[in-house]
Amino acid sequence: MPLVSILMAAFQAEATITAAVNSVMRQKHPHWELIIASDCGADYIDLCRASGIQDKRIRMVKSPTIGAGPSVARNAAFDQARGDFLAILDSDDTWKADKLSALLPLAMKSGLACDNTCAVNPDGSVIATAYPIDNTQRDIDALAMINSGVPHFPLLRREIAGNGFQAELRFAEDVVFNMEAISRAGAMTLLPRPLTNYIQRPNSATNNATAWRRAEAAYGQILAMLEAGELAVPSGVNAAIWTAFKDKRRLNLAYGAAVESGTATTFQDFLSQQRK
Fold it and tell me: What range does the domain containing 155 cover?
């Protein structure tokens, strides 16, 4: 039975991490290890124990410096991973109980698989899914992933991850990671069932009042890296990938204007307004 190494970056996650960890504990696929990467110096193992969570499959590492960012934190966990397969779970999100058991057979076959991420409010009400919910399993390419507007949290073979996350990126690092993984795998198999709850909180790292500024800086970095040929890009779509990130940068600036004017709080809220 394949071992799945789950990488979880945690920064000031005391209020949310136990729910995330409990969703791992409920997985039907039992052969996993959870590596929590503390990026703030907190001892999340002690926090879990205080909440009644004790499991030898859960370990913790620390970023080399406090506040190193999600890429560096996940890479610290990646370096300690023992599994042939990897999965990413953020410390403020949760999984359905069959996340691993449903995706693992697909990842074993194609190398890279994802579910249909569901963006939800803290009360559980649905905001949007990455794709329409149906029964049509299919392959998606990098452009579909980039343009979906909702993050993807894949299960993948370790070798598909390359050297991990681009350490300098503090925003959209997951999009770049997934793009490079698709470049190596050829495509990502989509199971269009929502097995990941991407929980939107106004004060989270991707939704607070300054998040759009960090996104603007990151998109500038990504475009420069693309221009320099520093990223793995699927063959034949370089120009389209460039345009997709330019469009995301433009959308982010519009989101920033909405935040500054008080007409939007979270990015998903902004996207919902755009769809009307």
Answer: 4-199
Contact in structure between 42 and 12 (CB atoms under 8 Å)? yes
Render each residue's pLDDT in the chain as its tens digit; 276 residues: 899 999 999 999 999 999 999 999 999 999 999 999 999 999 999 999 999 999 999 999 999 999 999 999 999 999 999 999 999 999 999 999 999 999 999 999 999 999 999 999 999 999 999 999 998 999 999 999 999 989 999 999 999 999 999 999 999 999 999 999 999 999 999 999 999 999 998 777 777 778 899 999 999 999 999 999 999 999 899 999 999 999 999 999 999 999 999 888 888 778 878 876
DSSP string computed for 50-116: HTT---TTEEEEE-SSTT--HHHHHHHHHHH---SEEEE--TT-EE-TTHHHHHHHHHHHHSEEEE-
Burial per residue of 179-196, b for 16 or more beta-carbon CB atoms within 10 angstroms, e otherwise: bbbbbbbebbbbbbbbbb
* 270 within a domain of the structure (yes/no): yes
CA distance 117 to 132: 10
Number of domains forming the structure of the chain:
2
